[in-house]
Specification:
GO terms for molecular function: hydrolase activity. By secondary structure, this protein is α/β, with parallel strands linked by helices. About 40% of the residues lie in helices and about 10% in strands. α3 packs across α14 (about 395-405), α7 (about 200-215) crosses α8 and α10 packs parallel to α12.
Length: about 425
């Protein structure tokens, strides 16, 4: 079985002392990967034997396993506390589209929005295509790495559902529900990609996860866990693509934005009713500049699409302010993906990129006429390209965006606080 298909059960026996503290640190590194199920078993003396700690072991009862000096016991307590509190948030739950999908669509029959073939994942460990729409990791992976105790995004919900032996061992640290092609509106993606998991359905799946967490922890502990967890949502691009492709003549852009705002508000309120309180929202990037759009514009950005992306950021800002004022305990961070990336697209050389027009992997004009496949034209220096395929950025761009979301200080980039500040609340 491949690494992603088999669960490794690891148990660390912790009696105490420097050797065991080193073993605990090694176990922590193993536990960063979602296919490792880590159990820490700490051995403590009974109350009748606590007086043995720190005295000569040779003269004590024979069935005592070991004696730990008081100073070592104090050091053990510090290390164990750090181990349990190492993550800035106890769990991270991810919702959205292909910018956050880490393999959901691999499990959708008939779905045309997939990335589980070469050359996707060429820069991922072992050059493995995982379902990420990237040459390697995506933005969510890098955000989670900085905020949680994982090395990459939590596993997809559908992966866990198809591997039930992993389900409850993973959900306490988070789940990824994002589906490539999905949008805010329920029908978004269904016409272009046939089968995607809508944002509404993703939230229903989260409800299932909550019920399972409640079975493990009880109601009170579950509410505490969920209130302190983080909910990252990156969605909206496909709603704009669908509007331009299918509905441009059917209704106005103003009507679209109003519909998106109302529907998005309903989604957030549903998550709130399920216990979510900390929301990390990523806005729509410059979708008018992706190679797939440039194919139809002669190589320039489609400003109508970009203007809609910027307008929706304004609508989302107002939405979140209203949501916060009407929902007790809500905190949020809104990342302006448009502002983060448009300067690179407009001035690639000054930001260390050589190409912000063409896809690194694809076919036809600007490598933007179809998805990346084993038969595609592939660039050799991925770090020089802004776009990986016809719609998505390279791993390096994802890394830069994640850093801006987590550490950004400019209110034009992330407001009113950044993701790290949100996590620490």
């Amino acid at each position: 079985m491949s690494g992603s298909e088999s669960l490794q059960n690891v148990a660390t026996l912790f009696f105490g002392g420097p050797d065991d503290r080193e073993a605990l640190e090694f176990s922590k590194r193993l536990g960063m990967y979602h296919h490792e199920n880590l159990t820490i078993i700490r051995f403590l003396p009974t109350s009748a034997r606590r007086e043995l700690i720190g005295v000569n072991f040779a003269n004590q009862e024979k069935d005592v396993l070991m004696a730990i000096p008081h100073q070592e016991n104090d050091a053990d307590a510090v290390v164990l506390t750090d181990f349990y509190n190492s993550a800035e948030v106890p769990a991270i739950f991810i919702f959205g589209d292909s910018t956050a999908d880490v393999g959901t669509n691999n499990y959708l029959k008939g779905c045309k929005a997939t990335a589980n073939n070469r050359y996707y994942g060429i820069d991922y460990p072992c050059s493995k295509p995982t379902g990420r729409f990237s040459n390697g990791f995506n933005t969510i992976d890098y955000v989670v790495r900085q905020l949680g105790d994982l090395e990459e995004s939590p596993p997809p919900y559908l992966y866990l559902l198809h591997n039930m032996s992993y389900f409850k061992s993973n959900i306490l640290r988070g789940v990824n529900f994002a589906s490539g092609g999905a949008g805010i509106l329920n029908r978004t993606g269904s016409r272009a990609f046939k089968n995607v998991v809508s944002l509404e359905k993703q939230i229903e799946q989260f409800g299932t996860v909550k019920r399972n967490i409640s079975e493990l922890l009880g109601e009170a502990n579950t509410e505490t866990l969920l209130a302190n967890s983080m909910y990252i949502i990156t969605v909206g691009s496909n709603d704009l693509f669908d509007y331009f492709h299918y509905d441009l003549k059917n209704y106005s852009a103003v009507s679209l934005l109003a519909n998106l705002t109302i529907t998005y508000t309903n989604h957030l309120q549903k998550l709130y009713s399920l216990g979510a309180r900390k929301f990390g929202i990523v806005s729509i990037p410059p979708v008018g500049c992706v190679p797939a759009v440039r194919v139809y514009t002669g190589g320039v950005c489609l400003e109508q699409l970009n203007e809609l992306a910027q307008l929706f950021y304004i609508y989302t800002s107002e939405l979140l302010r209203n949501f916060t004022s009407s929902s007790r305990g809500v905190k949020y961070s809104l990342g302006n993906a448009y502002r983060m990336t448009i300067n690179i697209i407009d001035n690639p050389l000054s930001h260390g990129f050589k190409n912000a027009r063409d896809a690194c992997c694809g076919v036809g004009a600007f490598n933007g006429e179809d998805k990346c496949t084993p038969k595609s034209k592939l660039c050799h220096k991925r770090k020089h390209f802004f776009f990986w395929d016809w719609f998505h950025p390279t791993q390096y761009v994802s890394y830069l965006v994640a850093n801006a979301l987590v550490r950004g200080e400019s209110k034009e980039i992330v407001t009113p606080i950044n993701f790290r500040q949100l996590a620490s609340l």
